[in-house]
Amino acid sequence: MPYRVFEEYDIEVTEDIKNQYQGVIKNIGEDVTREGLIKTPERAAKAMQFLTSGYDKDPVEILKGAMFAEDYNDMVIIKDIELYSLCEHHMLPFFGKAHIAYIPNGHIVGLSKIPRIVDVFARRLQVQERLTHDILECLHNTLKPLGVAVVIEASHMCMMMRGVQKQNSVTTTSGFRGQFEKVETRNEFLKLITAKLH
Ligand SMILES: [Zn+2]
């Protein structure tokens, strides 16, 4: 079976965003009628809707749909989760990796659900700090584990392409709940992911 992506877009919303992108293209001094740009407003409108499709999804429902009772009380770590988001200040991409750990308290969650909730929160207009916090709180409140840790390292196009043009800087944010607030547990987690940290 070939890989297929099914995409659905609201026709009216797409038309509206398309018209606005046409305005943007004209205002930067381009010709919206030239061949290479003729379908750009529509493509950009669809791309923007996809990149912000996290608003329509419920991360709690995603987690609850794959929680299983299990007597496992050791740290579960998912490293190097690819992450792509849009900064809410410039609507430019920021991208990098998330490293997430939790210590189960009677329930584990299907491993693929954790990258999925990262996507749900990342596909919104975000700041890296809030993205970190959103993921942390969602896992903490839904899974009710003994502890949760989230570390995100990301590069921001708004820093790299404009403004200070610091092309190699990486921003790291982190949040810890429960047992990860204890230094020893947090250090164990950081040690386990540290080889991948910048
Ligand atoms: Zn920005």
Automatic annotation (TrEMBL):
A Pfam family reported for this protein in Swiss-Prot or TrEMBL: GTP_cyclohydroI
EC category name: hydrolase
Gene3D superfamilies to which the protein is assigned, alphabetical: 1.10.286.10, 3.30.1130.10
EC number: 3.5.4.16
PROSITE patterns xref list: GTP_CYCLOHYDROL_1_1, GTP_CYCLOHYDROL_1_2
Catalytic function, reaction form: GTP + H2O = 7,8-dihydroneopterin 3'-triphosphate + formate + H(+)
InterPro entries: GTP-CH-I_C/QueF (IPR043133), GTP-CH-I_N (IPR043134), GTP_CycHdrlase_I (IPR001474), GTP_CycHdrlase_I_CS (IPR018234), GTP_CycHdrlase_I_dom (IPR020602)
Pathway: Cofactor biosynthesis; 7,8-dihydroneopterin triphosphate biosynthesis; 7,8-dihydroneopterin triphosphate from GTP: step 1/1
Domain GTP cyclohydrolase I: 18-193
Superkingdom classification of source: Bacteria
One function term, GO molecular function aspect: GTP cyclohydrolase I activity
Keywords: GTP-binding, Hydrolase, Metal-binding, Nucleotide-binding, One-carbon metabolism, Zinc
Positions of Zn(2+) binding: C87, H90, C158
SUPFAM superfamilies cross-referenced by the UniProt entry: Tetrahydrobiopterin biosynthesis enzymes-like
Cross-referenced PANTHER family: GTP CYCLOHYDROLASE 1, GTP CYCLOHYDROLASE I
Family note: Belongs to the GTP cyclohydrolase I family.
Quaternary structure note: Homopolymer.
Protein name stated in the entry: GTP cyclohydrolase 1
